[in-house]
Amino acid sequence: MNTKTNMTIIVALMLMLPLSLTAQSGAYFGPHLGIQKSQDAEDANYLGGATLRLKLAPVLAIEGDIGYRQAKFGSNALTVRDWPITATGLLYPLPIIYGGVGAGWYNTTFDYSDAYNDIGIDDETSQEFGWHLVAGLEIPASPTVRIFGDVRYVFLDYKFKELPDAVLEGAESDFYSINLGLLFQF
Fold first, then answer.
1. Residue 56: partners with Cβ closer than 8 Å, 6 or more residues away
2. What DSSP designation does 16 have?
3. pLDDT of residue 126
4. Can you give the CATH number for the domain in which 76 is found?
5. What element of type H or E holds 124?
């Protein structure tokens, strides 16, 4: 490496030193809001929930999350509503950057349009298992408050009913979400 590159690395590390001092262990709780889009859903939708993050060490955390989201498929033939409960392991390669992997239980309601209810396709509620990848930033706003933003990609394989006219033919239910939230230390 040349001298200019070495100096850039040293300056960057020195600038991050104050952040590493605030990357202490502790328990944090707070709300999050986001936007999500399933691959074959008609539109992006909002989601919301609450997050509990336990920082076990400056480089390691576990997170629990509960939320609500919905997506529409097949020209409003089907509305899918989820109440996901997820657990995620997080690694912090730098004090403000994290990545992780997790799993979730999705209590899911399949709400078919009245046209399909009238021909005998009933609404149903089921439980689905999914897993996800996450990458994000967690920035200290004060000694006891963090602001976080992340992107999650969720792998979720819904078992859609066979609807007439191939309304959902080949529909994919995996989705991504972009989330922003606050974490308060307690």
1. 25, 62
2. H
3. 85
4. 2.40.160.20
5. strand 124-142
pLDDT the model gives residue 10: 65
Reported as a single tens digit per residue, the pLDDT across 5-28 is 766 766 665 655 544 444 568 999
Count how many domains the chain has. Answer: 1
165 pLDDT above the threshold of 60: no
Non-local (6+) Cβ contacts of 149 within 8 A are: 136, 137, 178, 179, 180, 181
What is the C-alpha radius of gyration for the chain, rounded to an integer number of angstroms?
20
Q: Report CA-CA distances (Å) from 40 to 75, 78, 104, 121, 176.
A: 11, 12, 21, 21, 12
- Find the domain containing 94 and state its range: 3-185
pTM of the full structure: 0.76
Asked if residues 85 and 66 have their Cβ atoms less than 8 Å apart, the reply is: yes
Q: With contact defined as beta carbons under 8 Å apart, do 160 and 168 qualify?
A: yes
Q: Are 89 and 100 in contact (CB under 8 A)?
A: yes
Between residues 62 and 16, the one the model is more confident about: 62
